[in-house]
Design brief:
By secondary structure, this protein is α+β, with helices and mostly antiparallel strands. The chain has 2 helices and 5 strands.
């Protein structure tokens, strides 16, 4: 994922119980300011891969990596759905021209 992408992309890193990478996949490509994320599809893929943890990564074409309200709601929804399935969301990282933001580092996860 390049810092200069024109559309938002969300990638998901699927991890095993030792936090080793199972798969790194583009989940969705969106518009200049929005990428739809379907929690059901994310969890379905995690279960198919027997992943026990996920790291979400997406870009902000605006350059500002500050999490939006939609980013926070989507992340909270995924955390809430994943927990009963035994899947941890380790972090959600947003990349922009001006740097990056980590939900874990910001205390949002």
């Amino acid at each position: 994922m390049s810092k200069s992408e024109k559309e938002e992309h969300i990638r998901i890193l699927f991890l095993d119980k030792k936090n080793a990478l199972i798969a790194d996949e583009v989940q969705q490509t969106g518009t200049v300011d929005h990428t739809p994320v379907y929690p059901r599809e994310v969890m379905r893929r995690a279960l198919e891969l027997s992943a026990t943890a996920l790291i979400l990564v997406h870009n902000h074409p605006s350059g500002d990596p500050t999490p939006s309200g939609a980013d926070m709601r989507m992340t909270r929804e995924l955390v809430d759905i994943a927990k009963p399935l035994g899947i941890a969301i380790h972090d959600h990282i947003i990349v922009g021209r001006d740097g990056h933001a980590s939900f874990k580092g910001l205390g949002l996860i």
